[in-house]
Amino acid sequence: MKANVGTVDRIFRILIGLLLIAYAIPLGFSNTGWNWVGWIGVIPILTAVFSFCPLYAMLGLNTCPARR
Are the beta carbons of 17 and 42 closer than 8 angstroms? Predict the structure, then answer.
């Protein structure tokens, strides 16, 4: 797997992922019955940790400046 996620993109993914997981755990959010959707936040966190996004690979996108 070649890295295709840049630093700014990684930071954004981690923040979005943490926000979604916080919604799943109801930290400061009300329990709506849809809180399980917040566990989708694991996906952006994993793509940030591994610096690889399968969707970017399929679309031919690359935000990693060192690997262009």
Answer: yes
